[in-house]
Every structure is written in C-alpha cells, then in structure tokens.
Amino acid sequence: MRTHECYQRGCHVLCKPGHDWCSKHEQLHKQEQLKRLAKYHRTDQYKQYHKQWQREYNKYDRDPIANKFYHSPQWTKVRDYVKRRDLMIDGSTGRALSDHDYIVDHIIPRRYCCDPYDADNLWLLSRRQHNRKTQIEQAIEAKPSGINKLRHISKKTWKRWLNESIKND
C-alpha cells in the first residue's frame, strides 16, 4: 500500500498504510464519529428501529425457552432485586453503571444451574463485560468437559478473567 498525506486540511503528515488520517487527527475523527453516533442513538428514528429489531430478535433468533424465561414476571422481580442489591455497580470492575448499560448475568449459566432464579448466582455486569463473559463461556463450552467446568467457575475466577481481558485490550 502507498502512503499519502493526512486527509485533514492543512496537515501534511504522511499516514500509515490503510489509514486516512495521521495519528493526531485520527483520534479527533474517532471522537467526532462517537459524538455523531451518540446523537443518532438519542433520536426517535433509532429508538423505533432498535425496538423493532429487538422484537424480531426475540421472535425469530432467540432461544424460545430463554425468551420465555427472560420475559417472565418471576425473572423481572429477581432481576430488579439484584439491581437494587448491587446498587448498579459492575460486579467485575466495581464501576457505577448507567440505566442502559447493565445486564443481570448468571454466574453459572442459566441452562446449567439448578435454580435460575437464585439471586446468589446473579450479578450485574456492564454490557461490554457481559459480552466478554459470553465469549469466554462459549470457548469453555466447546472444549471437552466444558459444561462441567462452567458449572464450577466461581465469581472470584470470573472477576479475575474479565479484568485480565481488560488489561490485555
């Protein structure tokens, strides 16, 4: 690939191959993109699109058993209890969570635990941490005797693994 000058007007710094801006202006451009995206996410158009997307995901893609479970009144009560108990603090990092950035997660996955409504098996995670935990769970589950391993991973171990993956990013 060939190098070229930064796309920022007046900047004549050569860019790395595959980049449009120099390192200084790339950060500014990313911040502008994030601001535009955040502004778009607050629009009624996006909210309507996202609501429709969730409906279709729940109807066609999500596991019907999980869908029924996560929409049950009993789960809603337990979820709200855990949210109040943990004071909207991420269980792995200790950071405060916003109203739209939390997921009540099963430490031992719902499909492998004895009682899916047991509050001692639930904790709050940020969406990002929850996605990481899900990826780790899927990798463990794919290994021989992975299901048995998932049934015995402690909260302390999950905290360590999730915080290690943050440092590696």
Structural key phrases:
mainly alpha, two-stranded antiparallel sheet, 7 helices, 2 strands, extended
Short structural summary:
It contains 7 helices and 2 strands.
Question: What do these coordinates show?
Answer:
The protein has 169 residues and is mostly helical. 54% of the residues lie in helices and 6% in strands. It is built from 7 helices and 2 strands, in the order ααααββααα. The protein has helices at residues 23-41, 44-61, 64-70, 73-85, 127-142, 146-150, 155-168; strands at 102-106, 122-126. The protein has a two-stranded antiparallel ribbon. The mean pLDDT is 91.
Rg of Cα set: 21 Å
Number of strands: 2
Using the alpha-carbon principal axes, give the shape. Answer: extended
In round numbers, the mean pLDDT is 91
Strand order of the largest sheet: 1-2
Written as H for each helix and E for each strand, in order along the chain, the element string is HHHHEEHHH
Main sheet overview: 2 strands, antiparallel
- What is the CA-CA span between the terminal residues? 27 Å
Helix/strand-derived category reads: mainly alpha
The number of helices is 7
Helix content: 40-55%
Residue ranges: pLDDT <50 for 5 or more in a row?
Answer: none
Q: How big a fraction of the residues is strand?
A: 5-15%
